[in-house]
Amino acid sequence: MNLDNLMQVPGALAAFQYDDRGDLKSHQVKEGSELTPQVLDLLAHTCVANMAIATMEARGWEALTGQTGFEPIQGFSLIGLDWSAVVGRNHGIVVKNRDADYEAAFAALSAYGA
Amino acid sequence: MRIISQLLAIPGVIAAGEYAYRGDRFSFKGDLSPELARMASILCRSNTLSINMQSEIFSAFAEDCGCKPVQGWVVRGKEMSVCVVGNYFCFCQNAPGVFNDVMTIMRAKVGDIEENPLVYMYAKLGGDVNEKLY
Lengths: 114, 134
Prior knowledge:
By secondary structure, chain A is an alpha+beta fold. Chain A is about 35% helix and about 25% strand.
């Protein structure tokens, strides 16, 4: 699948696709970025793990509290010092914090089945 | 508590609070019961510790990869999101504009935005933001 659209998100440093196990399938990195395929692969694995944890927590929270609106989980974001990773189901974007538009990133990911 | 009040002033924010990295102290405002706020604090503390552990692993692959120290994390649900930056959490609806405003306030107060958050938030209006605001 084409990652060009994800690279158009404001502040995008990298876009990547991964499978359900978290293995990196494809990626694009903005020129000059220090992100490597190894980091993106690890990032994909952690995002798959965090999405699974979030789903478990959302399901438990809804059952315990009666609050709704969390499930199904649409995405997860890890906010680092300089950049944030925003991921959906099988795609993710790394955006520079200073230029990040998180809503645009999640919206772009939703087009990829997030 | 000022950050929490500022977050609650954003339309679409349901509740916001502060939790301790250690121990079980917490404070909150909004549409949560004290028991739910306590549970939310535990959940946020646990996830934050996990994310920090993950960033330590990242740094083993690339020492200056730009993620460490982690500022926070976000879970985006179907209609609601949970945003955590530092030791503050916020439950908000997924209405347009809400999420970015929440993140701007949280990162400005706890994270790394150095500019005036009002200028940052109103920059999307275009023109001379300082002139319009002040």
